[in-house]
Amino acid sequence: MLPLMVRDSLAALTDEDPNALGVLSPQSGFDPEGDGYDYATANYFGMKPDNAGHWSSRAPNGQLLKGRKHLTWPLTLMGEDQSGYVIRKGRDGRYYSFPRLWDEE
Fold first, then answer.
1. Of the candidates 62, 73, 96, 99, which lies 20 to 30 Å from 30 by C-alpha distance?
2. How many Å apart are CA 2 and CA 10, to the nearest integer?
3. Ramachandran quadrant class, 39 (left: phi over 0; alpha: psi -120 to 50; beta: rest)
4. What pLDDT, on a 0 to 100 scale, did the predictor assign at position 81?
5. What backbone torsions phi and psi does residue 7 show, to the nearest 5 degrees?
6. How far apart are alpha carbons 8 and 21 in whole angstroms?
7. Contact between residue 35 and residue 69 where contact means Cβ atoms under 8 Å apart
8. Could you tell me which residues come within 8 angstroms of residue 24 by beta carbon, excluding any fewer than 6 positions away?
9. pTM for the whole structure
10. How far apart are the first and last CA of the chain?
């Protein structure tokens, strides 16, 4: 059985409810197609920057926190792929990353 956050995140990819992740991700005004970073969701999950000041690209529920036009989006794509993750756009318009094995289920 998949962890609850992962199951809810996967539901956002397939549910007809566009707000399937509403309880996990605040509506922050973040544009997943833009060049920003979703600090509201990162803070919601208690995420902090590392010692170098870098914020993680992925929230614990699999949601990607950078917009597609973010300067380092290509590095995120490469890192997710090298780590065995696949990225999918949810019905909520946001992007999610999951271990490749779960995508094949």
1. 99
2. 10
3. alpha
4. 95
5. -60, -45
6. 7
7. yes
8. 5, 8, 9, 44, 61, 63
9. 0.73
10. 12
- 75 close to 65: Cβ distance less than 8 angstroms: no
What does the block give as tokens for 76?
Answer: 């995120």
pLDDT of residue 23: 40
**Residue 85: predicted pLDDT:** 94
**Residue 85, SS3 per DSSP:** strand
- Dihedral through CA 100, CA 42, CA 65, CA 84, nearest 10? -20
Q: Report d(CA 73, CA 14) in Å as an integer.
A: 24
